[in-house]
Structure formats: C-alpha cells, structure tokens
Amino acid sequence: MPKKTLRVSKIKEGTVIDHITGGHALDVVKILGITGRTNGVVTVAMNVPSKGLKFKDIVKVEGRKLASDEVDKIALLAPRATINIIHNYKVVEKQRVKLPSVIRDIVKCANPACISNSNEPVQSTFYVDREEPLLLKCHYCGYVMEKQDVLKQF
Amino acid sequence: MPKKTLRVSKIKEGTVIDHITGGHALDVVKILGITGRTNGVVTVAMNVPSKGLKFKDIVKVEGRKLASDEVDKIALLAPRATINIIHNYKVVEKQRVKLPSVIRDIVKCANPACISNSNEPVQSTFYVDREEPLLLKCHYCGYVMEKQDVLKQF
Fold first, then answer.
1. pLDDT tens digits, B120-130
2. What residues have CB less than 8 Å from B147, skipping those under 6 apart?
3. Is the CB of residue A74 less than 8 Å from the CB of residue A53?
4. Within chain B, which residues score under 70 in pLDDT?
5. Would you call B36 and A42 a contact, using CB atoms and an 8 Å cutoff?
6. How far is CA B66 from the centre of its chain?
7. What is the predicted pLDDT for the residue at A22?
8. Contact partners, residue A71, CB within 8 Å, separation at least 6
9. Which positions in chain A touch B22 (Cβ < 8 Å)?
10. Which residue ranges of chain A lie beneath pLDDT 50?
11. For the segment B62-86, what is each residue's pLDDT rounded down to a tens digit?
12. Measured between alpha carbons, how far is residue A130 from residues A133, A143, B154 in Å?
C-alpha cells in the first residue's frame, strides 16, 4: 500500500472542501446541514497529515454545489479552506474561501441586549478581531464572540 | 476510474465500523467521542450504496481499538454494524455488534421521576421494544425512550 494513497477517494461530481483546519470537518458538515439523514454520499477525513497545515480535514460532497452563504459560513470556521467543484472526476473550478474583515448578516450578536437583536432595522455587523481561532467583535455593542458562539447558530 | 473504488481507503492499523445503518455515521462518531479536536485520523463515508442495507455508512478510526462500552453503545444505534480490527492492512478480527434484549447500565431513563434516577441502588434496565428505529422501555417506570433520547446521553 503506497503511502500517498488518498484517504478519501476521488468523486465524480460534486464539491471537495479541502484544507479545512484540522479538527473542523464536523463543523463544516454541520454548516452544510448534513445530518446523515440527508441524501447523497458524503465522505469526511479528519486529522490527515498535511504539508501546509500540519493536520487538515477534507469533506467531499457528491452531487452538490455549495450556496454562497454556505461558503461564507465555512470561511468563518475554516478560513484557509479551498473549495473545488468537480465534474467528471476533474477539478473544473477552484476557489479559496475568504474571510472578509467585516462580517455582515451571517451571524447574530450573542448579546441579547444588543441593538442588532431588537426590532430596529439594523444589519448585524462584526469586525474580525482574530481569524483563527475566530474572534468577532460586534460593531454595535462591542460584544466579542468566539467560534463556539458562532457555531451554535449554524 | 473504476466503479468499485473504495470511497474511503484501507487503513494500516485501527478499527473499521462497517454496515452502519445509512445516516448514522455521525452518531457513531459522537459515541466514540470524536470531536475532531481529538488525535488520529478518522474517515467517514455516509450514504454509500450497499447490497444488504441499500445505503450504509462506514467509520474508520486509525490507530485505535474500541472499548466494550463503546461497542455496546454502537449496537444501540447501528444494530447491524460490523467491527473489524485491522492490523497491517488486514482484518485480524471481525465482530458483529449485538443488541441484547435487555440493556443494563448503558443509558439512563429519561423520566426524571423514575426510581432508577433516585439515590436508590438501582441498575438502569431497559427492554428493547424495537431495534430499528430504537425503542427502549424502562423496566421500572415503563417510560419509552427513542433513539434521540439515547443519543443525547452519549
């Protein structure tokens, strides 16, 4: 058995989310709404040794493209992930997720007293204080959210 | 690319949990305490077409054997699973999980008023009313637990 064998095999059609920070594949699976009760083959590899990242996770979703809000959410939790669209076993599109410095409308402030949680017409807005592990600072109330606070909302 | 390619590649050392009822791999991952923050390579395939089960899930845990209480818990959620111990890429031990008709000490009764939840020295005991989807009936109070009630405890 050669050492370079892929842990998870190639897929014919679908999306490969690669270079997920080691240990975050299950978060990505959650973002994609994959409970296992959903249809379609999904393969996951966790803690795979990787050159750039030391350890990385990979998620392969057969027969499905990701929606842009799903990509935005993945960027929050795995800011170095790459998203490859596969057609007939070939990568036809490659995309790196990008965490913008300002996050709007993807997550809600965890501070219930924040004005963005009132009935005011206010768009939730956060500044990225730190990419990894994630720290988001609310524009309105200054509340600092960690990754776990964000993950709870997905 | 031949059609019969394994979705998840062979492992050198560890445990393969195969024939998990389609959609339950993430439950098994939870039972094994795999959060992704744990060490060791874990690969998961969900909803793979299968002869016997229509769709099955597979979990491969590298460099680890399962404890007997982990096997008992897997039996509750995936009663048709097989557990293969792998050494040097070969199956050296094969075991089918078995759901006994009486379950003791693995789960607690979800009824807070049940005597098994008091300070009395009472061993939690359930009868398996249905294997799949799981229905457990408490010996003491007759409370019927579903799979979700059980899963919450793992």
1. 899 999 999 99
2. B76, B77, B133, B134
3. no
4. 1-5, 36
5. no
6. 11
7. 85
8. A83, A95, A97
9. 36
10. 1-3
11. 998 888 888 989 999 888 999 999 9
12. 7, 14, 33
Q: Please tell me the number of Cα atoms within 13 Å of A48 on its side-chain side.
A: 25
The tokens for B45 are 């395939």
**pLDDT at A2 (0 to 100):** 42
CA distance B81 to B72: 11
Whether residue B5 lies within 8 A of chain A, CB to CB, comes out as: yes
Phi, psi of A70 (to 5 degrees): -70, -40
Check: pTM over 0.90? Answer yes or no.
Answer: no
Instruction: Provide CB contacts within 8 A for B55, sequence distance 6+.
Output: B22, B23, B47, B48, B49
Chain A residues within an 8 Å CB radius of B47: 36, 38-42
Nearest-CB residue to A36 (from B34, B46, B89): B46
Q: Collect all residues with Cβ–Cβ distance below 8 Å to A2 and sequence separation of at least 6.
A: none
| A53 inside 8 A of chain B by CB | no
> What ipTM score was computed for the predicted complex, to two decimals?
0.81
Q: State residue A12's pLDDT score.
A: 92
> Position A151: which residue type?
L
How deeply is B61 buried, as exposed, middle or buried, from its count of CB atoms within 10 A (0-12, 13-18, 19+)?
buried
Residue closest to B36 by CA, chosen among A78, A56, A25: A25
The residues that bridge with A94 in the sheet, in sequence order, are A84
> What SS3 string covers A79-106?
CCCEEEEEECCEEEEEEECCCCCEEECC
For residue B136, give the nearest of B121, B151, B123, B125 by alpha carbon: B125
